[in-house]
Every structure is written in C-alpha cells, then in structure tokens.
C-alpha cells in the first residue's frame, strides 16, 4: 500500500552530538536510530539477522496478523492510511523495510553482526562485535558514547522443564518455531499457553484438519477481540484520553479511580452482550485475579479467532436459554472444530500423554503434537555475563533486570537505554518505542523539568513490565513537554482537539507540540486519526462525552481539595 511520510519536524539537533550504537533492527531499533539521527547524533545499527523486522520477521508464521491497528501501530511520520486495518505480519515487515529505506537507515545497518559484550569505559562504552556465523573466533571492539538496546522482548524462548518432557514420544516445539499449520493435519494437538500466539496456533490447528485440539492455561486470560466488525473502529481506537490519561488529580491517579469505575461497566457490558464477565464471549478460562474492583491488571488477548471455538464447547453445558440468548456470537461448525480448554498445571508427561492437576482433580490429555506457547525469557548476555548460560529451561533463574526509570534507563547510567521493553494492556509496542526514543533523546540533553509517577504499571501482571498504554505514553510526554493543549487546539483546529481528547494516545498527538513538533502530525490528527472517532456509533461517543464530564468533575474536586 502507498505510504505517507509526514515532513516538517521541528526537533533541533543536540549541541552535544554523540556516537550512539543501536542493537537490533526491529521496529524499536529502526525508530530509535531514525529519531537519534534526526537529533544530530552519529548512529550505527547492528543486527544478527539478514533482514530488518526483528520478531515480526523471524517469529512470523502463516496467516499471522497484527492485533494492533494501523492507526496505532504506524510511526508518527510514516503512515499507511490505505493499508488493512490490521496488517498481516508480512505487510508490516514490508512497512518496516520501506521505513528504513525512506529515512536512509539502510546505510547505518550492519547485518549478521552479533554483540558479544557491552562495557563502560572512559565515559562511554566498549562494544565487542562478531560477524554472525563466523567460526574463526575473530571479533573486534568499537567505542561508542551511548548504546540503545533494542533486541526485543520476544527473543529467547521460555521452555518449561516439565517432568518427562525429554522422553515425550510425540513432537514438541516452542511456538517461536511454528511456521505452517499443515503440521497439525490428522494430529492430536495440545497448545500449552493461552496468549495471542497460543490462540493463533490453536485456531490454525482447529481449521487445518487436526483430529483434536486442546489448549491449556494455568492462570486464565482476558479475551477481547481486536475488532468488532468492518463498520466499527478497532478495539484500540475505542479508548478516550480526556478526563483520564490527559489529566487526573494525584489522588485519582494513585488509587486508579478510572479503572476502579470503568472495570465494573466494562464487565457488565461483557455480560449483557455475550453472557459472561470473564472477557468478551469468553465462557471459560477466567483469569485468576479477575475481580470487579480493579481492572488495571490485565494484558488483553486480542487474537480471538479461537475464542468462539472454545466458547462453543463450553456453552454446551449451559442452560438452553443462555445458549439461545447469547447465540449471536456463535460460529457455524464449518468455522472450525471445537477446542477444549484445560485449566490447570502440567504435572508431567509420559508416552503421548500430558497429565494435569486441575481444580476438579487430575486430568490427562492425549497429544501427538505439543506446542509450547510459553513466552520468552528476558536475556541480555552482552550486558550480564553468564546470562546466556542460564538456559531456556532454567525456570529457577530470574530474568535479567530492566531499568528503573520508565523501563528505559537507570538514573545513574542515562547513556544506556532499553527501548521497546514494555507490554501494553491494550496498545502496541512500536509507538511506545517511538515515544521512548523521543524521551531518551531529550534525556541525553537535559534532565526533565518534572517527573511522572509510575501509576501506569499494571498490578499483579504476569510480566513485570506490563503497563497501561495510555498512562505510559502520557507519563513520558509530560516529562518532555509533548502533551498538546486541548484548549489551544480547540480554538485553532477543533478536529484536533477532538482527536486528542476523545481518541487514543496515538503517537502523532505527541508531535503536535513540544521538542518533536511536526506539521505532518497536525494533518494526521485532523484527518486519519479523526476518522475512527467518527466511525464509532453515535451513542458510544455520547457515553464517552458523559464519562469525560464525570471524571473531569471528580478530578477537579479532588485537585481542589489537594491544593488546600
């Protein structure tokens, strides 16, 4: 599809230009390199792969699609308005290749180059490098003023050490190795893990001739589809900033007032529309910490094609009137076979049988193919000696730590940044990486005038770097003075005020004002990002308006009391 590059960045180059090495050529590495270079820094980029794209390229599989929309995922100054709302992974990798070519990043990239070690020296960093695949042991060292680690959160597979795993007589593979659903034809398939990839694999098996399909989960999940129909905006555009992310009293942000209230309405909406409060049309797999009082906990599973196949089987045990009342979301038999769900922990494996401990007692699943959709380890062997020796199956070993300041830097070492190491509840990592890159560029030049509390952190999250997308974006934007004035834009161009207030925390809104202001972002906010708001049903925007008024009134009163 054609792309739109938005020119007119007002970002000024730093007077103290540095030599910066970016490690990784995925979405995070590319946008970091581009942002640094536009600020006047000398940039190098290394990747141990042959192509750009990172996880999106080397962990891809047949029929894989993005679960975040083009509106949210595309970078601020390189848009794809004519693309599908949810691009295929192949299309997104092509987008990243076009991005690299358009901004002249190709000349910076050294492919098939591995980083062996990064160490501090003389106010900078000594980086040991080696050509990937070289078996002659030769390597070399380079000096850089700063380093950006952009190697990705989905890099080293996490492989559990189940008793009997090595002796299992069927085929076992980690989801990172899965490529084509034809391997499931005629097989009894068990997928361990119910994240987005696990759901994709389960759906692929159920629609490609597997003799049976079972998913298993230890702690449950929260399933909400990435879209509700062609005539409605995607899920990540049915979110509002005004009265919540944009501005809250200190008390409301600290206690999570917005989540405390909206969680109840969201779950009630799930119940009225689909007959369950666990998730949308989710009749099984309740997340263990799903409560009515606090929703600031969950990373939503938006890849939901498998959910109706799980629900269809679960519904068979429900009273007839419930099945009839909420039959609208049912899928026909030809959409795929039933998918069974085991809620429990693997006790062990023997022969071609996997044994579980569940709340209802022991249970066994017969399987010819077991797919471990068990996620990834957080490893930086070039920074933490011995990290690569912990192994994929060393479940007792803690992951390597992330920085304390917004998961980007440690305050005592601001020239070593980690970009892209966050997981949003409902959002996307690429725009967050762009926001992080802008924040880091400012941090290299000056201390922030104000500090944002870390109220964006998800409570009881399955990963320590889980964040609320909107709160996180606004926290970084406040520190660099990039939050646009609603009043200013309401006077100057009302459409943009509506986009900023009633829309999602899209990264272009943080380029309307501040150190990275761009005329191109103005047009994007007035046209492309205004569209999903107008695509919402009228009653939905009325509800958002009333919700915004309510939270503005509550926060205004709380702020007045705090100032006394």
- Amino-to-carboxy terminus distance: 56 Å
Subunit organisation of the chains: single chain
Instruction: Please tally the helical runs, counting DSSP H or I stretches of 4 or more residues.
Output: 16
The portion of residues forming beta strands comes to 15-25%
Major sheet strand order: 11-17-12-13-14-15-16
Chain-averaged pLDDT: 92
- Which percent bin holds the helix content? 25-40%
Structural class call reads alpha/beta
Low-confidence stretches: 1-15
How does the major sheet shape up?
A: 7 strands, mixed
How many strands? 21
Summarize the structure.
With 564 residues, the protein is of the alpha/beta class. It has 16 helices and 21 strands.
Give an overview of the whole structure.
This protein is α/β, with parallel strands linked by helices and 564 residues long. It has 16 helices and 21 strands. It has helices at residues 27-38, 55-58, 70-73, 89-102, 196-206, 250-255, 257-274, 307-315, 320-325, 429-445, 469-479, 486-492, 494-502, 519-526, 531-535, 538-562, and strands at 4-5, 19-23, 42-46, 78-79, 109-110, 113-121, 124-131, 140-144, 146-149, 156-157, 171-174, 188-192, 212-217, 340-350, 353-358, 361-366, 369-372, 376-377, 416-418, 423-424, 466-467. Strands 11-17-12-13-14-15-16 form a 7-stranded mixed β-sheet. Strands 5-3-2-9-19 form a 5-stranded parallel β-sheet, covered by helices on one side. A 3-stranded antiparallel β-sheet has the order 6-7-8, with no helix packed on it. Strand 12, helix 5 and strand 13 form a beta-alpha-beta unit. Helix 1 runs parallel beside helix 10 (429-445), helix 10 runs parallel beside helix 11 and helix 12 runs antiparallel to helix 13. The longest helix has 25 residues, at 538-562. The protein is globular, with a radius of gyration of 24 Å. The model is unreliable at 1-15 (pLDDT under 50).
């Amino acid at each position: 599809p054609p792309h739109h590059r938005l020119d007119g960045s007002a970002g000024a180059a730093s007077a103290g230009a540095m030599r910066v090495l970016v490690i990784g050529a995925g979405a995070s590495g590319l946008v970091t390199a581009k942002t640094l270079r536009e600020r006047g820094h000398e940039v190098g980029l290394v990747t141990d792969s042959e192509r750009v794209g990172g996880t999106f390229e080397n962990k891809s599989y047949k029929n894989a699609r993005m679960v975040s929309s083009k509106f949210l995922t595309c970078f601020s100054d390189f848009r794809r308005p004519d693309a599908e709302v949810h691009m295929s992974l192949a299309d997104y990798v092509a987008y990243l290749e076009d991005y690299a070519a358009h901004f002249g990043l190709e000349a910076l990239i050294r492919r098939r180059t591995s980083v062996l070690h990064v160490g501090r020296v003389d106010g900078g960093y000594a980086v040991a490098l080696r050509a990937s695949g070289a078996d002659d042991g030769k390597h070399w060292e380079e000096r850089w003023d700063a380093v950006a680690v952009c190697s990705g959160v989905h890099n080293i597979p996490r492989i559990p050490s189940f008793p009997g795993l090595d002796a299992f007589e069927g085929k076992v593979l980690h989801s990172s190795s899965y490529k084509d659903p034809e391997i499931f034809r005629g097989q009894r398939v068990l997928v361990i893990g119910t994240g987005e990839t696990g759901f994709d694999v389960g759906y692929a098996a159920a629609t490609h001739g597997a003799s049976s399909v079972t998913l298993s989960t230890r702690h449950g999940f929260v399933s909400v589809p990435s879209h509700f129909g062609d005539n409605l905006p995607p899920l990540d555009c049915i979110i509002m900033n005004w009265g919540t992310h944009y501005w809250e009293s200190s008390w409301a942000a600290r206690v999570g007032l917005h989540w405390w209230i909206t969680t109840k309405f969201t779950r009630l909406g799930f119940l009225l529309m689909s007959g369950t409060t666990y998730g949308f049309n989710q009749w099984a797999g309740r997340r263990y910490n799903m409560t009515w009082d606090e929703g600031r906990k969950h990373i939503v599973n938006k890849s939901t094609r498998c959910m109706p196949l799980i629900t269809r089987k679960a519904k068979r045990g429900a009273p007839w009137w419930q099945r009839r009342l909420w039959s609208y979301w049912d899928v026909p038999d030809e959409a795929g076979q039933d998918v069974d769900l085991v809620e429990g922990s693997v006790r062990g494996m023997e022969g071609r049988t996997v044994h579980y401990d569940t709340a209802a007692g022991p249970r066994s699943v017969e399987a010819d193919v077991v797919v471990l959709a068990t996620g990834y380890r957080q490893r930086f062997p070039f920074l933490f000696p011995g990290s690569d020796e912990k192994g994929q199956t060393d479940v007792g070993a803690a992951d390597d730590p992330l920085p304390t300041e917004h998961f980007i830097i440690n305050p005592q070492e601001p020239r070593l940044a980690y970009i892209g190491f966050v997981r949003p509840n409902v959002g996307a990592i690429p725009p967050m990486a762009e926001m992080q890159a802008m924040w880091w560029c400012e941090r290299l030049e000056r201390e922030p005038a104000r500090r944002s509390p870390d109220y964006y952190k998800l409570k009881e999250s399955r990963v320590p770097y889980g964040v609320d997308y909107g709160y996180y974006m606004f926290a970084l934007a406040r520190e660099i003075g990039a939050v646009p004035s609603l009043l200013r834009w309401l006077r100057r161009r009302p459409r943009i005020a509506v986009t900023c207030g009633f829309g999602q925390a899209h990264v272009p809104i943080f380029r309307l004002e501040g150190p990275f202001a761009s005329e191109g972002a103005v047009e994007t906010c007035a046209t492309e990002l205004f569209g999903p708001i107008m695509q919402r049903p009228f009653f939905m925007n009325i509800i958002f308006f009333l919700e915004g008024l309510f939270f503005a009134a509550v926060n205004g009163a709380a702020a007045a009391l705090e100032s006394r």
